[in-house]
Amino acid sequence: MTRLLPSHAPGSLVTPRHVDLTGRGGDGSRPPAAPAAPRDRLRVLEAHGLSAVHPSSGRGVHGADLVLRRGTLTVVCGPVGSGKTTLLRALLGLLPLDAGELRWNGTPVGDPAAFLVPPRCAYVPQVPRLFSESLADNLLLGVSPAPGELAAAVRLAVLDEDVAAMPDGLATLVGARGVRLSGGQAQRAAVARAFVRRPELVVLDDVSSALDLETEARLWQGVLAGGTTCLAVSNRAATLARADQVVRLDHGRVVG
Asked: Taking the CA of residue 75 as centre, how many other CA atoms within 13 Å lie in the half-sphere pointing to its CB?
């Protein structure tokens, strides 16, 4: 291949370059989380006519409209299989849209999957994805929050008392896929991971399903007290009662 190169080409086919796989810089520090630019601060997120089909189940959503205003809690509810998770994933660009448009502060969003990421948006799925590392590493995943922000996120997720009871606190190893945590602890860890990124919008897919009523109430109290804009899936009466608006789905269509 070297003989085939033009005479003016450099002698080496490749130039070696260090690739950092640790999420840390050359000095061992983590890159700071980028704050949202003023123009990115969420005022209103509008979704018009969203239609998408989940490839594995064949179920989908059809012509769904949503308006999420800053500082409000919107709860999506409906029977099993009604399209709640599909609606969230379509909104976030995690499923291809068959139709529909998304607008952030009135500006069309061409690629939701690339746009709706921290610090604009953080997503907590039904099943948290945790790794065989310390709890702190699972929450940070390479970001470097300002002093006190990690503790604030842990407290907001109602995980502070659990961390205090752990043998090594935030340095506690959670095991493969978080096996050393209970279901409720794993869900709250994922919520803390979302909030430590200071997102403009938090999308929560049934994260209170493994929580007792008291812990769930404390979680929503913290979320709402912070003025967070939140889109959540839940069928729990206590969550629906706190919502600023409720979106009911049935067979993939908004019915109320």
From this structure: 19
Position 96 in a domain: yes
Distances 235 to 51, 65, 202, 209 between C-alpha atoms, Å: 22, 19, 18, 9
pLDDT tens per residue, range 119-157? 999 999 988 899 999 999 999 998 888 889 999 999 999
> 110 and 143 share a domain?
no
d(CA 22, CA 42): 31
Same domain, 217 and 93: yes
Count of domains for the chain? 2
Using one digit for the tens of pLDDT, what is the confidence trace for 156-204?
Answer: 999 999 999 998 999 999 999 899 999 899 999 999 999 999 999 999 9
Q: Of 195, 200, 249, 219, give the one whose Cα is nearest residue 45.
A: 200
Identify residue 88 by its one-letter amino acid code.
L
Cis peptide before 38 (omega within 30 of 0): no
Residue type, 124: V
Same domain flag for 187 and 205: no
Q: Are residues 246 and 235 in the same domain?
A: yes
Cβ atoms 250, 78 nearer than 8 A = yes
Number of Cα atoms under 13 Å in the Cβ half of residue 202: 29
Check if the beta carbon of residue 65 is closer than 8 Å to that of residue 87.
no
The owner of tokens 């849209």 is 97
Query: Looking at the structure, do residues 45 and 154 belong to the same domain, yes or no?
Result: no
**Amino acid at the residue 253:** R
Residues 172 and 60 both lie in one domain: no
Q: Which domain holds residue 164?
A: 132-198
Task: Note the pTM of the prediction, 2 decimals.
Answer: 0.82
Asked whether the beta carbons of 98 and 52 are under 8 A apart, the reply is yes
Residue 16 is assigned to a structural domain of this protein: no
